[in-house]
Amino acid sequence: MSYFGAVRWLSDDAVARLRQAADRPDLSGTRYTIREEIGRGGMGTVYLADDAALERPVALKVLTLEEGASQAESLLREARVMAKLEHPGLVPVHDAGLLPDGRVYYAMKFVAGERLDHYAASGRTLWDRLAVFQKICDAVAFAHARGVLHRDLKPENVMIGAFGEVLVMDWGVARRAQDPAEPGGTVVGTRAYMAPEQAEGRSDRVGERTDVYALGAILRHLLEATREAPAAAERALSAVSGKAMAERPEDRYQTVADLSADVGRFLAGDAPAAHREGLTERAGRFFRRYRTPILLVLAYLAMRALLILLAGR
Questions:
Q1: What dotted CATH number matches 9-109?
Q2: Any catalytic annotation for residue 117?
Q3: What is the pTM of this model?
Q4: What is the pLDDT of residues 12-33, one digit of tens each?
């Protein structure tokens, strides 16, 4: 059989395994030992590795073999951005540098848990999901306060840890306020979660409300994944996600904190500012909020009426 004939018989899985073997980084002389590959993205591959110096597992992100010097700088930039964002909802970076094979890497906390899209599909209550959503908002609001936009918020980029911690991941396309805008027409992010200005490549118009849009899309995803959500809750939260995803940035929540506060109003039993309640909804919410005293009063009145009826016989 000819060489070319043999190549034709390689399966996609075999080609993938060959690529994975070729791309495996050289960690000789470093403190890290690879256990397994756990993720692969646009410019880097993430490995679960052991840190011999501190005797702990870490997630090691390494530039893929085919990427050039420009992407090496992008990976280091991502590490620097993450290192400056010290918050419980953001993954801490432990180390960064150059491997013996010349590739850039950085080491970060290894998060054992599940992605938000898997979490949302696991039958959690609406209130559990909204509590997670508010933690996501807290982390993004913190990044905004430090002048950093995420620009690729989506359920796949959020991890729920084994002890309930919520971590916003993958800051590879994040932009700092002082960074120059990309050339016109440059599109970064994920289409289903992109604001119109982002999808059109209008990087000069991308700002905090662009991340607000993506958070609105995440809220919509969490609502759609909820089984048998109360109709009133669905209407109220749909109004919140709709405001966050308004086509014009000026029609959205002005900040992530404003969006989170409106979800907080719903969780507290109040109407979100984005939702106009009808009389029936208002009465239903009033009853749900004051159910116990209302039922006690009704029981008292029923007992009084019964006593009066018996006394009149």
A1: 3.30.200.20
A2: no
A3: 0.83
A4: 666 556 566 667 899 999 999 9
